[in-house]
Amino acid sequence: MNNEGVDESKRQFLTTALTVVGAVGTGYLAVPFLSQMQPSVKTMAAGAPVEIDLSKMETGQLIRVAWRGKPVWVLNRTPEVLATLKTLESELRDPQSLESLQPENSKNSGRSIKPEIFVAVGLCTHLGCSPTFRPEVSPPDLGDKWKGGFFCPCHGSWFDLAGRVYSGVPAPTNLEVPPHRYVTDTLLIVGEPTEGESA
């Protein structure tokens, strides 16, 4: 082949230009492909910690928030409820919460950091139904043993106002207590553990 009269600089320029255009084109194709592998903003937000302002919460009030797609309950327990918790231990399957999920800072009879504030994932540990909040004592449909708590209408599991499961019901363990911490006396963050614990 006769290469006389061929401008090598033009050939080098065209080779370099085609290489650059090819690399840019590959980048344009790769970016959407790689970005679709990332979780969506909505997904990342669903797992993010949730801040709860307790400053306007009344005694006896239950508030509900969503964290990681699950209902989370925050209950401001009355002094009477706290006194009743101690009297129920003989009725419960796991009164000391030895077999249940809760952070280290909530391993106590009230299953809470602050005695009056109880935080729990609002899903029955049997099949994941959401129990109803039944704070009344001895209602006609639940009988004299009921001292207030959470009743699962799906299969009849009972939980006290510390989320501890009664003996003889389908639920195998106490309600889960999610990782949480207090930023101030009235600002609670659910989904963010205290220092030294994992979420």
Topology:
Elements lengths: L7 H28 L5 H6 L3 E4 L8 E6 L2 E7 L2 H9 L29 E5 L10 E3 L14 E3 L6 E2 L20 E3 L4 E4 L9
Antiparallel strand pairs: 1-9, 2-3, 3-4, 5-6, 6-7, 8-9
**Lateral strand order in the biggest sheet:** 1-9-8
Tally of alpha and pi helices: 3
Number of domains: 2
The CATH C-level class name of the largest domain: Mainly Beta
Structural class based on helices, strands and sheet pairing: alpha+beta
> Order of helices and strands, N to C?
HHEEEHEEEEEE
- Classify the helix fraction into a percent range: 10-25%
Spatial shape = elongated
Number of strands: 9
What is the compact description of this entry?
Helices cover 22% and strands 19% of the residues.
Can you describe this structure?
With 199 residues, this protein is an alpha+beta fold. It has two domains: 1-38; 44-190, 3-layer Sandwich (Rieske Iron-sulfur Protein). It is 22% helix and 19% strand. The protein is built from three helices and nine strands. The chain has helices at residues 8-35, 41-46, 79-87, and strands spanning 50-53, 62-67, 70-76, 117-121, 132-134, 149-151, 158-159, 180-182, 187-190. It has a three-stranded antiparallel beta sheet with strand order 1-9-8, with no helix packed on it. The longest helix has 28 residues, at 8-35. The protein starts with 7 loop residues before the first helix and ends in a 9-residue tail after the last strand. The relative contact order is 0.16. The mean pLDDT is 87.
Keywords for this structure?
199 residues, alpha+beta, Rieske Iron-sulfur Protein, 3-stranded antiparallel β-sheet, 3 helices, 22% helix
